[in-house]
Amino acid sequence: MTSPLSPPAAPSSAVRWTPRLWGTLLVLCAAMFLDALDVSMVGVALPSIGSELDLSTSTLQWIVSGYILGYGGLLLLGGRTADLLGRRQVFLVALGVFAVASLLGGLVDSGPLLIASRFIKGLSAAFTAPAGLSIITTTFAEGPLRNRALSIYTTCAATGFSMGLVLSGLLTEASWRLTMLLPAPIALIALLAGLKLLPRSEREKDHNGYDVPGAVLGTASMLLLVFTVVQAPEAGWASARTLLSFLAVAVLLSVFVYVERRSAGPLIRLGVLRSGNQIRAQLGAMAFFGSYVGFQFLVTLYMQSLLGWSALHTALAFLPAGAVVAVSSTKVGSIVDRFGTQRLIATGFALMVVGYALFLRVSLDPGYAAVILPSMVLIGAACALVFPSLNIQATNGVEDHEQGMVSGLLNTSVQVGGAIFLAVVTAVVTAHAPAHATPQAVLDSYRPGLIVVTFIAVAGLLITLPGLRGRRAQETLVVAKSTVKEAEAERVAVRD
């Protein structure tokens, strides 16, 4: 973890990045870009997919949920696999699978096959995401170099998400299949470049065997948790099916913790969660992504269903948030070096709270520049500060052989947080759905969901605040130690 007690690192300008180092980072950024691009593109294309393949609304949901299920359910396994089998090998194999699944997704002619291709893509992303992040954290030294690399890396995720919205609006006009096929050639190019540029990584030699029970229990519990949360709004949160599923998740997680505490080579070393900074990073990631996914869901419905905006118009409305992130990409690393992750995360969550709260002013005839744009700019600034800082905070101070594990844990927090809070926001909106669906009544049913989104961001801010107090205490300790040393030096000088 970043600590004020650590000696100051050399400025990033002191070490010149070689073309190969830049190439390595670009390959990893391409994979992260594709993950985000794929998530955002499919949402706009769903109506066209349903019309051509004659799919029901519940089946269409699984085109999105299938990806989330594969991604969120297998991240823990993906992270630890990267540590044990080699990050480069795992990353390249998974990227190849992603390219093939993208190609198949654009060619199939049935709903079940399309859902299967989406699940496979999510599964492959569950291996590329933690492997890619751990390659960065083991290639770039902790401090300014890593902070700069991670700020560029996380910016690519936000840029991919923003561009996905716009590209989907354009491509769907021609054919929804293009939105499925577009990632395939990009993934293939990244794969070929990765074969040449990615540093070779050795398998972990001193591990104590493979934690097969932990892998089975961890994967099963995450798959069931994501499945239960995704299905809960449709099945009913208080239904026997949902409650029994949550009970089964609790049992699986309890057994998983029991196994991990006694395993010689655990899938997750539970000791990493004794760090307050690590816990705040994981919970912050859940609140950050969960609030944003809920916000985007409601705002997309508001703009398209109530205001009658086109998919492209809606995408362009979100674009300022992505533009703020993209423009700030080269600056965030140096800002982290100066102020530390805790302050930036707290500042970012505060901006999110204000941005979400301002959006509550929307009406059936909003002025974009006066009402919607301020929220988008504030949320974009928040994303630029929070997401890179969370990645830096979660991976700093972690040994190289556990970077994949921590990366998988962080990505799991992001995906599970998104799934849980989106389901909660959906349930709140559904509970307030009007009997007579006039436009104003529908808008009024969205407001409780927006309030929930705002409170999720408030929770993220409150989670961060104890880290600020801990930082001030450490800084005071450093000053006190320095003062004692200076006084001792003065006494020695007088005596001499």
TrEMBL record:
Q: Which domain of life is it from?
A: Bacteria
Q: Which residues cross the membrane?
A: 21-47, 59-78, 90-108, 120-140, 152-172, 178-198, 210-230, 242-260, 281-303, 309-332, 344-362, 368-387, 408-429, 449-468
Family annotation (Pfam families): MFS_1
Sequence ranges assigned to domain Major facilitator superfamily (MFS) profile in this UniProt record: 24-472
What topology in the membrane does the UniProt record assign?
A: Multi-pass membrane protein
Q: Where in the cell is it found?
A: Cell membrane
InterPro entries xrefs? MFS, MFS_dom, MFS_trans_sf, Sugar_transporter_CS
Q: What is its main location?
A: membrane
Q: Does the keyword Transmembrane helix apply?
A: yes
Q: Does the keyword Cell membrane apply?
A: yes
Enumerate the SUPFAM superfamilies for this protein.
MFS general substrate transporter
Q: Output the PROSITE patterns linked to this UniProt entry.
A: MFS (PS50850), SUGAR_TRANSPORT_1 (PS00216)
Which keywords does UniProt give here?
Antibiotic resistance, Cell membrane, Membrane, Transmembrane, Transmembrane helix, Transport
Q: Mind telling me which CDD domains this protein's record contains?
A: MFS_MMR_MDR_like
The identity of this protein, by name, is MFS transporter
Biological source species = Streptomyces hokutonensis
Lineage, uppermost ranks:
Bacteria, Bacillati, Actinomycetota, Actinomycetes, Kitasatosporales
